């Protein structure tokens, strides 16, 4: 994954009017995890990546920056 993931997660979170804490609460983990994704380049596991894509109703290709659709 590249920095595109960080950009897409942040864009989707803001488009859905969610704070980092609110998004983290949906997955049952700490706000710092979302912050790490958005600013520190940390990457979720494959299973969690699928959950994030499903949560925002986007494809994995979109989430990873492989497509803009």
CATH topology: 434 Repressor (Amino-terminal Domain)
Summarize model confidence as the mean pLDDT.
94
Q: Secondary-structure element sequence?
A: HHHHH
| Strand tally | 0
Taken together, the total number of domains comes to 1
Based on CA inertia axes, which overall geometry fits?
globular
Helix content: 55-70%
CATH homologous superfamily identity = lambda repressor-like DNA-binding domains
Query: Beta-strand level of the residues, as a percent range?
Result: under 5%
Counting helices, strands and paired strands, the structural category is mainly alpha
Distance from N terminus to C terminus (CA atoms, Å) equals 18 Å
Number of helices: 5
Q: What's the story with the biggest beta sheet? A: none
**What kind of assembly state do the chains in view correspond to?**
single chain
CATH 2nd-level architecture:
Orthogonal Bundle
CA radius of gyration: 11 Å
Low-confidence stretches: none
- CATH first level: which class? Mainly Alpha
Description of the structure:
This protein is mainly α. It has a single domain, classed as lambda repressor-like DNA-binding domains (434 Repressor (Amino-terminal Domain)), CATH 1.10.260.40. Helices cover 65% and strands 0% of the residues. The chain has five helices and no strands. It has helices spanning 3-15, 20-27, 31-39, 46-56, 60-63. The model has no long low-confidence stretch (mean pLDDT 94).
How are the secondary structure elements laid out?
Elements: H1 3-15, H2 20-27, H3 31-39, H4 46-56, H5 60-63
Helix pairs in contact: 2-3
């Amino acid at each position: 994954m590249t920095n595109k993931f960080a950009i897409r997660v942040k864009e989707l979170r803001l488009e859905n009017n969610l704070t980092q804490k609110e998004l983290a609460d949906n997955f049952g983990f700490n706000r710092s995890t979302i912050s790490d994704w958005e600013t520190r380049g940390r990457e979720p596991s494959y299973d969690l990546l699928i959950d994030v894509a499903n949560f925002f109703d986007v494809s994995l290709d979109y989430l990873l920056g492989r497509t803009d659709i």
